[in-house]
Design goal:
By secondary structure, this protein is α+β, with helices and mostly antiparallel strands. It has a single domain, classed as Arc Repressor Mutant, subunit A. Helix content is 55%, strand content 15%. The chain has a three-stranded antiparallel β-sheet with strand order 1-3-2. A hairpin with a 2-residue loop joins strand 2 and strand 3. Helix 2 crosses helix 4. It is globular. About 10% of the residues have low confidence.
């Protein structure tokens, strides 16, 4: 990871709601990261975090622009997935 990419990641994660959204996406059922099986429906995020849909959408866009997640439409649903290589880097920097 170069310095510019690290700065983008830190900027994206500096907002408390974005950090909470990102951590919700990367946590599996047991609270641990599962590379392929880990995905999070945006509707679930909205219900869990009690943040409006436009706000969640904005935060997801910022996380995607920083290279932290990908989003994909599955029918009428939007699903967010973490990028495993970026999560490995971020995980080293976050407290337990």
């Amino acid at each position: 990871m170069d310095i510019k990419q690290a700065a983008k990641i830190f900027k994206a994660l500096s907002h408390p709601n974005r950090l909470e959204i990102y951590l919700s996406i990367v946590k599996g059922e047991q609270g641990s990261f599962k590379t392929e099986a880990c995905e999070c429906g945006v509707a679930e995020l909205i219900a869990t975090l009690k943040i409006g849909a436009p706000t969640v959408s904005h935060h997801l866009k910022e996380l995607a622009n920083a290279g932290l997640i990908t989003t994909e439409r599955q029918g009428k649903f939007l699903v967010a997935r973490p990028l495993p290589e970026t999560w490995a880097e971020v995980k080293r920097l976050l407290p337990e």
